[in-house]
Specification:
Helix content is 37%, strand content 15%. By secondary structure, the protein is an alpha/beta fold.
Length: 440
Protein backbone atom coordinates (compact mmCIF):
# COMPACT_ATOMS: atom_id res chain seq x y z
CA UNK A 1 0.00 0.00 0.00
CA UNK A 2 1.32 3.43 -0.91
CA UNK A 3 1.68 5.65 2.14
CA UNK A 4 -0.09 8.99 2.21
CA UNK A 5 1.68 12.30 2.83
CA UNK A 6 3.82 12.33 5.93
CA UNK A 7 2.08 14.88 8.13
CA UNK A 8 4.05 13.51 11.08
CA UNK A 9 7.38 14.63 9.64
CA UNK A 10 6.07 18.14 9.08
CA UNK A 11 4.91 18.26 12.70
CA UNK A 12 8.29 16.96 13.85
CA UNK A 13 10.04 19.80 12.04
CA UNK A 14 7.86 22.22 14.00
CA UNK A 15 8.48 20.31 17.24
CA UNK A 16 12.26 20.64 16.91
CA UNK A 17 11.87 24.42 16.91
CA UNK A 18 9.87 24.57 20.13
CA UNK A 19 10.81 21.34 22.02
CA UNK A 20 14.54 20.82 22.75
CA UNK A 21 15.48 17.60 20.97
CA UNK A 22 12.09 17.39 19.28
CA UNK A 23 10.82 14.61 21.56
CA UNK A 24 10.78 13.98 25.31
CA UNK A 25 12.22 10.47 25.00
CA UNK A 26 15.47 9.93 23.13
CA UNK A 27 14.34 6.46 22.03
CA UNK A 28 11.43 7.96 20.07
CA UNK A 29 13.45 10.36 17.96
CA UNK A 30 12.72 9.69 14.27
CA UNK A 31 16.43 10.00 13.45
CA UNK A 32 17.01 6.70 15.26
CA UNK A 33 14.70 4.96 12.79
CA UNK A 34 14.30 6.67 9.42
CA UNK A 35 15.37 10.33 9.26
CA UNK A 36 12.91 12.53 7.34
CA UNK A 37 10.56 9.62 6.55
CA UNK A 38 9.50 8.12 9.90
CA UNK A 39 5.77 8.73 10.64
CA UNK A 40 6.79 10.26 14.01
CA UNK A 41 3.30 10.77 15.53
CA UNK A 42 0.24 8.59 16.03
CA UNK A 43 -3.48 9.21 16.09
CA UNK A 44 -4.57 5.81 17.40
CA UNK A 45 -3.06 2.56 18.72
CA UNK A 46 -4.83 -0.76 19.22
CA UNK A 47 -3.49 -4.28 19.69
CA UNK A 48 -0.14 -4.15 17.89
CA UNK A 49 -1.30 -1.64 15.27
CA UNK A 50 -0.67 2.10 15.07
CA UNK A 51 -2.33 4.71 12.86
CA UNK A 52 -0.31 7.81 11.99
CA UNK A 53 -1.63 11.34 11.38
CA UNK A 54 -2.41 10.47 7.76
CA UNK A 55 -4.42 7.41 8.83
CA UNK A 56 -1.79 4.97 7.54
CA UNK A 57 -2.09 1.74 9.51
CA UNK A 58 1.13 0.07 10.64
CA UNK A 59 1.89 -3.16 12.45
CA UNK A 60 4.32 -2.47 15.27
CA UNK A 61 7.16 -4.99 15.04
CA UNK A 62 9.40 -2.66 16.95
CA UNK A 63 9.31 -1.12 20.42
CA UNK A 64 5.63 -1.47 21.35
CA UNK A 65 5.60 1.80 23.25
CA UNK A 66 9.29 1.34 24.18
CA UNK A 67 8.42 -1.81 26.08
CA UNK A 68 5.37 -0.53 27.91
CA UNK A 69 2.65 -2.51 26.14
CA UNK A 70 3.31 -6.22 26.50
CA UNK A 71 -0.47 -6.77 26.56
CA UNK A 72 -1.00 -4.71 23.43
CA UNK A 73 -2.10 -1.14 22.90
CA UNK A 74 -5.39 -0.02 24.42
CA UNK A 75 -6.04 -3.36 26.12
CA UNK A 76 -9.81 -3.60 26.60
CA UNK A 77 -9.80 -4.99 30.16
CA UNK A 78 -7.24 -2.46 31.40
CA UNK A 79 -8.75 0.56 29.66
CA UNK A 80 -12.15 -0.28 31.16
CA UNK A 81 -10.71 0.08 34.67
CA UNK A 82 -8.77 3.21 33.76
CA UNK A 83 -11.82 4.91 32.23
CA UNK A 84 -13.79 4.09 35.36
CA UNK A 85 -11.06 5.66 37.51
CA UNK A 86 -11.12 8.82 35.39
CA UNK A 87 -14.92 9.05 35.61
CA UNK A 88 -14.76 8.71 39.38
CA UNK A 89 -12.04 11.34 39.68
CA UNK A 90 -8.35 10.77 39.09
CA UNK A 91 -7.17 13.08 41.88
CA UNK A 92 -8.41 14.31 45.24
CA UNK A 93 -7.26 15.57 48.62
CA UNK A 94 -7.56 11.98 49.89
CA UNK A 95 -5.47 9.02 48.76
CA UNK A 96 -6.68 6.34 46.37
CA UNK A 97 -7.01 2.82 47.84
CA UNK A 98 -5.63 1.27 44.65
CA UNK A 99 -2.07 2.10 45.69
CA UNK A 100 -2.40 -0.03 48.82
CA UNK A 101 -3.85 -2.93 46.84
CA UNK A 102 -1.09 -2.72 44.24
CA UNK A 103 1.58 -2.62 46.96
CA UNK A 104 0.06 -5.74 48.54
CA UNK A 105 0.08 -7.53 45.18
CA UNK A 106 3.72 -6.72 44.46
CA UNK A 107 4.75 -7.94 47.91
CA UNK A 108 2.71 -11.09 47.39
CA UNK A 109 4.67 -11.74 44.18
CA UNK A 110 8.03 -11.11 45.89
CA UNK A 111 8.09 -12.66 49.34
CA UNK A 112 11.56 -11.24 50.09
CA UNK A 113 10.09 -7.70 49.97
CA UNK A 114 8.09 -5.95 52.71
CA UNK A 115 7.35 -2.41 51.52
CA UNK A 116 6.66 -0.44 48.33
CA UNK A 117 6.99 3.14 47.11
CA UNK A 118 5.39 4.26 43.86
CA UNK A 119 6.43 6.80 41.25
CA UNK A 120 5.47 7.35 37.63
CA UNK A 121 8.71 7.03 35.63
CA UNK A 122 11.71 4.74 35.59
CA UNK A 123 14.13 7.58 36.19
CA UNK A 124 12.18 8.59 39.29
CA UNK A 125 12.11 5.04 40.63
CA UNK A 126 15.86 4.70 40.12
CA UNK A 127 16.51 8.01 41.88
CA UNK A 128 14.26 6.94 44.78
CA UNK A 129 16.15 3.68 45.20
CA UNK A 130 19.50 5.51 45.26
CA UNK A 131 18.25 7.98 47.87
CA UNK A 132 16.96 5.15 50.06
CA UNK A 133 20.19 3.15 49.70
CA UNK A 134 22.31 6.15 50.63
CA UNK A 135 20.04 7.00 53.55
CA UNK A 136 20.11 3.45 54.92
CA UNK A 137 23.90 3.05 54.71
CA UNK A 138 25.12 6.58 55.37
CA UNK A 139 27.38 6.19 52.34
CA UNK A 140 27.46 8.03 49.02
CA UNK A 141 29.09 5.96 46.29
CA UNK A 142 27.30 3.71 43.80
CA UNK A 143 28.45 0.95 41.42
CA UNK A 144 26.25 0.54 38.34
CA UNK A 145 25.76 -1.95 35.52
CA UNK A 146 23.09 -0.95 33.02
CA UNK A 147 20.91 1.97 32.04
CA UNK A 148 19.27 3.69 34.99
CA UNK A 149 17.80 6.97 33.74
CA UNK A 150 18.79 10.57 33.24
CA UNK A 151 19.18 12.00 36.75
CA UNK A 152 22.30 13.72 38.11
CA UNK A 153 23.39 10.79 40.25
CA UNK A 154 23.65 8.57 37.13
CA UNK A 155 25.21 10.95 34.59
CA UNK A 156 27.78 11.95 37.20
CA UNK A 157 29.68 8.84 36.10
CA UNK A 158 30.83 10.91 33.12
CA UNK A 159 32.34 13.55 35.41
CA UNK A 160 35.22 11.19 36.14
CA UNK A 161 37.06 12.48 33.08
CA UNK A 162 37.30 9.09 31.39
CA UNK A 163 33.88 9.16 29.74
CA UNK A 164 32.83 6.19 31.84
CA UNK A 165 29.52 5.72 30.06
CA UNK A 166 30.91 6.29 26.55
CA UNK A 167 31.10 2.64 25.57
CA UNK A 168 28.16 1.52 27.68
CA UNK A 169 25.22 3.60 26.47
CA UNK A 170 25.51 6.15 23.69
CA UNK A 171 28.44 8.39 22.77
CA UNK A 172 28.24 11.99 23.82
CA UNK A 173 26.24 11.76 27.05
CA UNK A 174 27.41 15.16 28.24
CA UNK A 175 27.15 15.65 32.02
CA UNK A 176 26.71 19.38 31.45
CA UNK A 177 24.58 20.72 34.31
CA UNK A 178 25.49 17.87 36.65
CA UNK A 179 27.23 19.25 39.80
CA UNK A 180 30.98 18.63 39.59
CA UNK A 181 30.91 17.76 43.28
CA UNK A 182 29.37 14.42 42.23
CA UNK A 183 32.60 13.38 40.49
CA UNK A 184 33.84 9.96 41.62
CA UNK A 185 30.56 8.97 43.24
CA UNK A 186 29.34 6.53 40.54
CA UNK A 187 31.40 3.73 38.99
CA UNK A 188 30.24 1.60 36.02
CA UNK A 189 31.17 -2.07 35.76
CA UNK A 190 30.59 -4.53 32.94
CA UNK A 191 28.13 -7.38 33.13
CA UNK A 192 29.56 -10.80 34.01
CA UNK A 193 32.88 -9.21 35.08
CA UNK A 194 33.26 -10.02 38.77
CA UNK A 195 36.84 -8.81 39.01
CA UNK A 196 35.80 -5.35 37.87
CA UNK A 197 33.13 -5.17 40.56
CA UNK A 198 35.50 -6.55 43.21
CA UNK A 199 38.01 -3.82 42.37
CA UNK A 200 35.36 -1.11 42.74
CA UNK A 201 34.30 -2.52 46.12
CA UNK A 202 37.92 -2.80 47.33
CA UNK A 203 38.81 0.74 46.28
CA UNK A 204 35.56 2.26 47.62
CA UNK A 205 34.79 1.05 51.16
CA UNK A 206 32.13 3.78 51.32
CA UNK A 207 30.03 2.12 48.57
CA UNK A 208 26.32 2.44 49.37
CA UNK A 209 24.84 0.29 46.62
CA UNK A 210 25.39 -1.93 43.64
CA UNK A 211 22.69 -1.22 41.08
CA UNK A 212 22.30 -3.43 38.03
CA UNK A 213 19.94 -4.80 35.43
CA UNK A 214 19.55 -8.51 36.22
CA UNK A 215 19.72 -9.52 32.58
CA UNK A 216 19.34 -7.73 29.29
CA UNK A 217 21.48 -8.59 26.29
CA UNK A 218 23.19 -11.68 27.68
CA UNK A 219 22.51 -14.39 30.25
CA UNK A 220 24.50 -14.26 33.49
CA UNK A 221 27.42 -16.66 33.78
CA UNK A 222 26.89 -19.54 36.17
CA UNK A 223 27.23 -18.21 39.71
CA UNK A 224 27.62 -14.57 38.66
CA UNK A 225 24.48 -13.14 40.27
CA UNK A 226 25.00 -15.30 43.36
CA UNK A 227 28.52 -13.91 43.74
CA UNK A 228 27.29 -10.32 43.33
CA UNK A 229 24.75 -11.01 46.07
CA UNK A 230 27.46 -12.47 48.33
CA UNK A 231 29.81 -9.51 47.80
CA UNK A 232 27.06 -7.05 48.68
CA UNK A 233 26.02 -8.97 51.80
CA UNK A 234 29.60 -9.32 53.08
CA UNK A 235 30.33 -5.62 52.59
CA UNK A 236 26.97 -4.29 53.85
CA UNK A 237 26.20 -2.88 50.41
CA UNK A 238 22.58 -2.50 49.24
CA UNK A 239 21.96 -4.65 46.16
CA UNK A 240 19.48 -2.99 43.80
CA UNK A 241 18.00 -4.74 40.78
CA UNK A 242 16.67 -2.41 38.10
CA UNK A 243 13.83 -4.36 36.51
CA UNK A 244 12.05 -1.40 34.94
CA UNK A 245 12.47 -3.16 31.60
CA UNK A 246 12.96 -6.85 32.42
CA UNK A 247 10.13 -7.19 34.93
CA UNK A 248 7.15 -9.37 33.93
CA UNK A 249 8.85 -10.53 30.69
CA UNK A 250 9.88 -14.07 31.66
CA UNK A 251 8.26 -14.45 35.07
CA UNK A 252 5.23 -13.04 36.85
CA UNK A 253 7.26 -10.39 38.60
CA UNK A 254 10.99 -9.77 38.51
CA UNK A 255 13.18 -11.90 36.29
CA UNK A 256 15.43 -12.36 39.34
CA UNK A 257 12.90 -14.97 40.44
CA UNK A 258 14.09 -17.10 37.53
CA UNK A 259 17.64 -17.09 38.90
CA UNK A 260 16.63 -17.41 42.56
CA UNK A 261 18.80 -14.44 43.56
CA UNK A 262 17.09 -11.74 45.59
CA UNK A 263 18.08 -8.08 45.98
CA UNK A 264 17.50 -5.61 48.80
CA UNK A 265 15.61 -3.21 46.54
CA UNK A 266 14.03 -3.69 43.12
CA UNK A 267 12.32 -1.37 40.62
CA UNK A 268 9.53 -2.10 38.16
CA UNK A 269 8.12 0.06 35.37
CA UNK A 270 7.26 -0.08 31.67
CA UNK A 271 5.11 -3.26 31.49
CA UNK A 272 3.63 -2.71 34.97
CA UNK A 273 0.92 -0.35 33.72
CA UNK A 274 0.66 -1.49 30.09
CA UNK A 275 1.17 2.01 28.76
CA UNK A 276 -0.02 3.94 31.81
CA UNK A 277 2.50 5.70 34.02
CA UNK A 278 3.31 3.65 37.09
CA UNK A 279 6.64 2.53 38.53
CA UNK A 280 7.44 0.84 41.81
CA UNK A 281 10.34 0.45 44.22
CA UNK A 282 9.98 -2.61 46.42
CA UNK A 283 12.35 -3.64 49.18
CA UNK A 284 13.20 -5.00 52.59
CA UNK A 285 11.59 -3.21 55.51
CA UNK A 286 14.79 -2.18 57.32
CA UNK A 287 16.01 -0.42 54.17
CA UNK A 288 12.71 0.93 52.83
CA UNK A 289 11.81 2.57 56.15
CA UNK A 290 14.77 4.89 55.69
CA UNK A 291 12.62 6.69 53.11
CA UNK A 292 11.01 8.25 56.20
CA UNK A 293 14.35 9.62 57.39
CA UNK A 294 14.84 11.61 54.19
CA UNK A 295 12.36 13.44 51.95
CA UNK A 296 10.80 11.61 48.98
CA UNK A 297 7.46 13.03 47.87
CA UNK A 298 5.59 14.16 44.74
CA UNK A 299 2.01 15.25 44.08
CA UNK A 300 1.37 13.20 40.97
CA UNK A 301 2.67 10.02 42.54
CA UNK A 302 -0.73 9.98 44.20
CA UNK A 303 -2.94 10.15 41.12
CA UNK A 304 -5.23 7.19 40.55
CA UNK A 305 -4.70 6.06 36.95
CA UNK A 306 -1.26 4.54 37.58
CA UNK A 307 -2.19 2.17 40.43
CA UNK A 308 -5.53 1.32 38.78
CA UNK A 309 -3.74 0.39 35.56
CA UNK A 310 -1.14 -1.56 37.51
CA UNK A 311 -3.75 -3.70 39.25
CA UNK A 312 -5.66 -4.33 36.03
CA UNK A 313 -2.43 -5.16 34.18
CA UNK A 314 -1.32 -7.71 36.78
CA UNK A 315 -4.76 -9.30 36.72
CA UNK A 316 -4.70 -9.61 32.94
CA UNK A 317 -1.15 -10.96 32.97
CA UNK A 318 -2.03 -13.58 35.54
CA UNK A 319 -5.15 -14.73 33.68
CA UNK A 320 -3.44 -15.33 30.34
CA UNK A 321 0.11 -16.05 31.60
CA UNK A 322 1.41 -13.25 29.38
CA UNK A 323 5.07 -13.76 30.25
CA UNK A 324 4.91 -17.26 28.75
CA UNK A 325 3.24 -15.97 25.58
CA UNK A 326 5.66 -13.13 24.90
CA UNK A 327 8.68 -15.30 25.68
CA UNK A 328 7.52 -17.93 23.19
CA UNK A 329 6.83 -15.22 20.60
CA UNK A 330 10.31 -13.84 21.13
CA UNK A 331 11.87 -17.27 20.63
CA UNK A 332 9.97 -17.63 17.35
CA UNK A 333 11.22 -14.24 16.20
CA UNK A 334 14.84 -15.04 17.08
CA UNK A 335 14.68 -18.45 15.36
CA UNK A 336 13.31 -16.92 12.18
CA UNK A 337 15.84 -14.10 12.17
CA UNK A 338 18.58 -16.72 12.23
CA UNK A 339 16.89 -18.76 9.51
CA UNK A 340 16.38 -15.78 7.21
CA UNK A 341 19.91 -14.50 7.79
CA UNK A 342 21.44 -17.93 7.15
CA UNK A 343 19.51 -18.31 3.89
CA UNK A 344 20.67 -14.85 2.80
CA UNK A 345 24.29 -15.49 3.85
CA UNK A 346 24.18 -12.64 6.36
CA UNK A 347 26.37 -12.63 9.47
CA UNK A 348 23.85 -11.85 12.21
CA UNK A 349 24.22 -11.60 15.99
CA UNK A 350 21.13 -12.12 18.17
CA UNK A 351 20.98 -10.72 21.70
CA UNK A 352 18.48 -9.86 24.41
CA UNK A 353 15.86 -11.63 26.45
CA UNK A 354 13.45 -13.56 24.24
CA UNK A 355 10.69 -11.00 24.83
CA UNK A 356 13.16 -8.16 24.16
CA UNK A 357 14.90 -9.58 21.11
CA UNK A 358 17.39 -7.66 19.00
CA UNK A 359 19.88 -8.32 16.22
CA UNK A 360 22.87 -6.71 14.57
CA UNK A 361 24.26 -7.54 11.14
CA UNK A 362 28.03 -7.79 11.54
CA UNK A 363 29.10 -5.41 8.81
CA UNK A 364 30.71 -1.98 8.49
CA UNK A 365 27.54 -0.99 6.63
CA UNK A 366 25.30 -1.92 9.55
CA UNK A 367 23.67 1.47 10.08
CA UNK A 368 22.93 1.73 6.37
CA UNK A 369 21.40 -1.75 6.45
CA UNK A 370 19.33 -0.84 9.51
CA UNK A 371 18.04 2.23 7.67
CA UNK A 372 17.27 0.09 4.62
CA UNK A 373 15.37 -2.43 6.76
CA UNK A 374 13.19 0.25 8.30
CA UNK A 375 12.62 1.98 4.96
CA UNK A 376 11.69 -1.26 3.20
CA UNK A 377 9.47 -2.57 5.99
CA UNK A 378 7.66 0.77 6.27
CA UNK A 379 6.56 0.36 2.65
CA UNK A 380 4.98 -2.93 3.75
CA UNK A 381 3.24 -1.10 6.61
CA UNK A 382 5.50 -2.42 9.35
CA UNK A 383 7.21 -0.29 11.97
CA UNK A 384 10.38 -2.33 12.20
CA UNK A 385 14.12 -2.10 12.68
CA UNK A 386 16.32 -4.55 14.59
CA UNK A 387 14.48 -4.74 17.93
CA UNK A 388 11.14 -6.37 18.77
CA UNK A 389 9.43 -6.03 22.14
CA UNK A 390 6.99 -8.92 21.97
CA UNK A 391 3.36 -8.51 22.98
CA UNK A 392 0.45 -10.88 23.43
CA UNK A 393 -1.12 -9.30 20.33
CA UNK A 394 1.61 -10.47 17.97
CA UNK A 395 -0.40 -13.30 16.47
CA UNK A 396 0.92 -16.17 14.36
CA UNK A 397 -0.58 -14.56 11.24
CA UNK A 398 1.10 -11.22 11.96
CA UNK A 399 4.45 -12.93 12.53
CA UNK A 400 4.15 -14.83 9.25
CA UNK A 401 3.46 -11.61 7.34
CA UNK A 402 6.41 -9.96 9.08
CA UNK A 403 8.82 -12.79 8.22
CA UNK A 404 7.60 -12.88 4.62
CA UNK A 405 8.39 -9.19 4.18
CA UNK A 406 11.66 -9.35 6.10
CA UNK A 407 12.88 -12.28 4.00
CA UNK A 408 12.97 -10.11 0.87
CA UNK A 409 14.85 -7.39 2.75
CA UNK A 410 17.42 -9.82 4.14
CA UNK A 411 17.96 -11.36 0.72
CA UNK A 412 18.69 -7.91 -0.69
CA UNK A 413 21.15 -7.22 2.10
CA UNK A 414 22.80 -10.52 1.21
CA UNK A 415 23.32 -9.09 -2.28
CA UNK A 416 24.84 -5.96 -0.76
CA UNK A 417 27.23 -8.04 1.32
CA UNK A 418 28.36 -9.99 -1.76
CA UNK A 419 28.86 -6.75 -3.73
CA UNK A 420 26.20 -7.77 -6.22
CA UNK A 421 24.51 -4.46 -5.47
CA UNK A 422 24.96 -1.45 -3.18
CA UNK A 423 22.70 -0.28 -0.39
CA UNK A 424 23.54 3.30 -1.39
CA UNK A 425 21.41 2.84 -4.51
CA UNK A 426 18.29 2.30 -2.42
CA UNK A 427 18.38 4.66 0.55
CA UNK A 428 15.86 7.48 0.18
CA UNK A 429 17.00 9.43 3.23
CA UNK A 430 19.90 9.96 5.63
CA UNK A 431 21.39 7.04 7.52
CA UNK A 432 19.79 6.46 10.93
CA UNK A 433 21.63 7.48 14.08
CA UNK A 434 23.13 4.89 16.37
CA UNK A 435 21.18 4.03 19.52
CA UNK A 436 21.94 2.80 23.01
CA UNK A 437 24.86 0.56 23.80
CA UNK A 438 24.69 -1.19 27.17
CA UNK A 439 26.91 -2.52 29.88
CA UNK A 440 25.02 -5.81 29.70
Amino acid sequence: MKLKNNTGQNLYKKAKKIIPGGTHLLSKRPELFLPNLWPSYYSKAKGCHIWDLDNNKFTDMSHMGVGTNSLGYSNKAIEKEVISAVKNGNMSTLNCPDEVKLAEKLIELHDWADMVRFARTGGEANAISIRIARASTGRDKIAICGYHGWHDWYLSANLNGNESLENHLIPGLNPLGVPKALRNTVFPFNYNDLNELKTIIKENPDLAAVKMEVVRSYEPKVGYLEEVRRLCSENNIVLIFDECTSGFRETFGGVHKKYNVFPDLCMFGKALGNGHAITAVIGKREIMECAQDTFISSTFWTERIGPTAGLATLKEMDEIKSWEIITETGKTIKDNWIKLATNANINIEITGMDALASFVIKSEEWLKYKTFITQSMLKKNFLAANVVYSSTKHSKKILEEYFESLEKVFNKIGDFERDIDSVDNYLKTDVCHSGFKRLN
